[in-house]
Protein: Hydroxymethylglutaryl-CoA synthase family protein
Organism: Gordonia oryzae
Amino acid sequence: MTAGIISYATYLPTWRLDGTDIGARGDRVVAGFDEDSTTMAVAAADAALSGADQVDGVYLVTSSPAYADKTNAVTVHTALGIESDVVAADLVGTGKSAVAGLTLAGHTSGLAVLSDVRVGLPGSLDEKSGGDGAAAFLFGTGQDRPVIAELIGAASRSIEILDRWRAPSSTTGERWEERLGQEVYEPAVRTVVAHALAQAGIEHVDHAVVASGNPSVVKRASRLVPAQRTTTSPVGYSGAADLGIALAAAFDVAAPGEVVVAVSVTDGVDVLVFRTTGAILDARQDVPVAESRAHGTRVDYPRYLQWRGLLSRESPRRPEPDRPVAPASMRNVEWKFALTGTRCNACGFLHLPPMRICRSCGAGDLMARERVAGRGGRVATYTVDRLAYSPSPPVVGAVIDFDGGGRYTFEVADGAEGIEVGARVTTTFRRLYTAGSVHNYFWKARLLSTVDSGNGSGEGGGRSSGVGSRREEMPA
């Protein structure tokens, strides 16, 4: 039995590239230097889970995987604190893989996470019209949480066409003249949509969601799929995440009982037909995609090019960090990836990182695991280091006192303007650095004043108990 969507969430990075820098009409949503498809997937998925007790599978869809020959979905799965007996798999590709991920999650009551970082050569259409982001959809049968959108129809047609492509070893892609795709895709869209609606027994469409890497298809979306309202991704073409972000934007405004038709036009046409339920009114993501899109922090063009490896600059006159060591990461996997500490059952003291012997009362082996990722906290003290190695200096480190206990030192993400003692923060999964082709993932602190309101506030607290007072060092 196919499950329905029970929750969804999107993540749009904080940074915005001014349109005047790239010859675009509006600004461009860009991932930070410490973000990739894995970290953005964690952010979107964590918001979509929102206390879910059971997930039967994690499926990461991306065209910009952080690793090859390693399953990136397992990193997402581990960072979310999901039990190890749950399958995690990558689906690498763009539009068709996005539909495959949603379909697979629907058949397994799983979590589909669509995430991508899109890079275009300077001056290219991909640079002007692309965007970075992630979307996550949790499927279930409605036993524990109500279904907000039922899948009632689907149809597909695969077409071999050299419309858009990228060599596996290349960062940027290429495209053919867009009229080729337009002439091939337009009749196919009308035919496949008609088949999907007939299968669902639907004649009237309330929301048409159209995603495609072909600009002509996007421009003509409202004529290709007649509907009361047509939605395309508000961040520009975001690859594997494009359909998900646009679908989430439709769910943000859809009323109960409305039909939402999701159309992916990539190497053919894939159509999914959803009908919303009354539960959608209470289960929308906290802040709509449109509101998340409207807010951000500007990054200058040279720095953005440096982040994407398209511009070289002099490195800090400091030794570059060593490659992370696999055995140490394996021994500390729950702490490093899921930010899980231990709370003493004798006195309630929360240890970050986890400990066997309580630093407060001295009790031994009386610890309970406790995940603090996403929990709110306050800045106890901070420092600005302008000499430390960083792809985007300076490095700002802050000691964070978590709500409900626990203290640790974190690097601050997404800029530290306005940081002060007592400032509210949450945590976010990021790359600390990459050395020897190994990504050193860990958590950073993020000022709530800089958090895009659509990405959650992390105000959740833990149980009230003693707060640790020992200052810890950031992991190497």
Summary: Residues 178-200 form the longest helix (23 residues). The chain has a mean pLDDT of 90.
